[in-house]
Design a protein that fits this description.
By secondary structure, the chain is of the alpha/beta class. The protein is built from 14 helices and 14 strands. The chain has two domains: 217 residues, 3-Layer(aba) Sandwich (Rossmann fold); 64 residues, CBS domain Like (Alpha-Beta Complex). The chain is 38% helix and 22% strand. The longest helix has 18 residues. The protein is globular, with a radius of gyration of 23 Å.
Length: 354
């Protein structure tokens, strides 16, 4: 993963001690939840549902923050708190220096229209509008002039690879093409925060991979603050500068993809990471032997070890020198170390029972 492309418009998001309880009297049960009442106890004793418990995440500006979890983990609930489509029971939400919880109704409307944009799993396109009109919609809500919004929409439609489809309707496009329209519409708003709720989950695997590539290419250029929701670890590892994994409304682990794969917090995380292609996650800087240089090619410290293995095999070499982005020598990495790192630890055998 490349370094986040921070710009003057990069807006970090800070979530502090966020709780969400669904039910008629959530505040009444907040203290009990804060003191340790479980999700099951809350439901059985009081008929309320615990959505989120004590969420604390700092999302860096200009980076892709992935929030991952299985169905019911609270990930979609969490992303809808960022623009207050869901009101928290308790907690703080900050977008840069702005306290989202303190915003008036008018300020919140402007925040949603001008500072955030959403891309949904089910595309959420207007079936009676053309691709051009769908892409213009957010700008129309901002009262941007017709000429200006048409120019912006045309540029983004072309940028996501749909030039020539401006006058088509959503039902004339494939699922992958419709999601490109959704992405173009979000980007046309030029909001610094992009919220993507399982945006690629409904797509076929090949189209999904293509959309991931489109997003990464655009992010290199734009440096948005992106919050991306997924239940797929491979997608999380490919896209995320940072990843937070949720279970039953709680953050179980957060960090870089490497940290999660190499240092799983518990068996639950280990079960997710056991079948990961570690060669596509681990980077040279993690595996290298510092300070010692060898006869062989030089590779960037940020390169994943799968690419290094491919390079060494092609050149018939056993090791490579690792350098930083300015070419300064840092150490070396060997093929034997790469092979060992690409094999995950053996899962502990279950104890025999009589």
């Amino acid at each position: 993963m490349a370094e986040p492309n921070q710009t003057s418009e990069s807006v970090g998001i800070r979530i502090k001690h966020l709780y969400k309880i669904f039910g008629p009297n959530p505040a009444q049960h907040l203290q009990a939840v804060q003191q340790g009442m479980t999700k099951q106890e809350l439901r059985e004793a009081h008929g309320h549902v615990l959505g989120l418990r004590d969420i604390n995440i700092d999302m860096p500006g200009g980076a892709i923050q992935v929030v991952m979890g299985l169905s019911g983990s609270g990930k979609s609930t969490l992303i809808r708190h960022i623009n207050r489509l869901i009101e928290p029971t308790s907690g703080e939400l900050w977008a840069g220096p702005h306290n989202v919880m303190a915003m008036s109704p008018g300020e919140l409307r402007r925040f949603r229209r001008e500072r955030t944009a959403m891309v949904f799993q089910k595309f959420a396109l207007f079936p009676h509008l053309t691709i051009q009109e769908n892409t213009e919609f957010g700008l129309q809500m901002q009262h941007v002039s017709r000429k200006k919004r048409q120019e912006v929409a045309v540029r983004w439609i072309e940028r996501v690879g749909l030039k020539g489809y401006e006058d088509s309707y959503p039902n004339q496009l494939s699922g992958g093409m419709q999601q490109r329209v959704g992405l173009a519409r979000a980007l046309a708003n030029d909001a610094p925060i992009l919220l993507m709720d399982e945006a690629f989950s409904a797509l076929d695997p090949l189209i999904r991979g293509d959309m991931q590539s489109v997003l990464l290419d655009l992010q290199q250029e734009l440096g948005k603050t992106i919050v991306f929701i997924t239940h797929d670890l491979d997608e999380a590892l490919r896209l995320g500068d940072r990843i937070a994994i949720l279970r039953d409304g709680e953050v179980i682990q957060q960090g870089t993809g490497q940290q999660i794969v190499l240092q799983p917090a518990n068996e639950y995380i280990s079960s997710f990471t056991r079948d990961v292609n570690r060669g596509r996650v681990i980077r040279c800087r993690t595996l290298m032997t510092p300070g010692v240089m060898v006869a062989g090619p030089s590779v960037d410290a940020s390169l994943v070890i799968e690419e290094v293995a491919r390079l060494l095999s092609a050149q018939g070499q056993d090791a490579a020198n690792v350098v930083n982005s300015r070419g300064k020598p840092l150490g070396n990495i060997s093929m034997s170390d790469i092979i060992a790192a690409m094999v995950p630890p053996k899962a502990p055998e279950a104890s025999a029972t009589v």
